[in-house]
Amino acid sequence: MDMTLKFTDSHEWVKDNGDGTATIGISDHAQKMLGDVVFVDLPEVDAEIEAGEEFSLVESVKAASDVYAPVSGQIIEVNEELEDSPELVNEEPYDGGWIAKVKLSNASELDNLKGAEDYINTIEEDE
What we know:
This protein is α+β, with helices and mostly antiparallel strands. The chain has one domain (6-106, 115-120): CATH 2.40.50.100. Helices cover 20% and strands 35% of the residues. It contains four helices and ten strands; from the N terminus they run βββαβββββααββα. Strands 5-8-9-3-2-1-10 form a seven-stranded antiparallel beta sheet. It is globular. The two termini are 19 Å apart.
């Protein structure tokens, strides 16, 4: 896991790309809880998202789970590979399994998220 990632309590991750954009996905912990992912409902490019609001849906053989925006901004790219290969969320949650890239409208929102170490400690306490 990339220790520069930031996390939400609802198990989304964010990578600050350093250019005013960020990449979003769900954590390894989240994909393990879901089980085999069979479908990802990708957001629309150019859509505006607000931190804390649902912007995607991940369906597995066990359940469907909303994905909440960890930051606010405009969707600039979605991971179209997930349309044919949703299992990438299981296989590479931090690499090939990303969901969307956003142009940040308020980069300071990143400061409200948990660092990787804090997140790991939180999920270990829950287990």
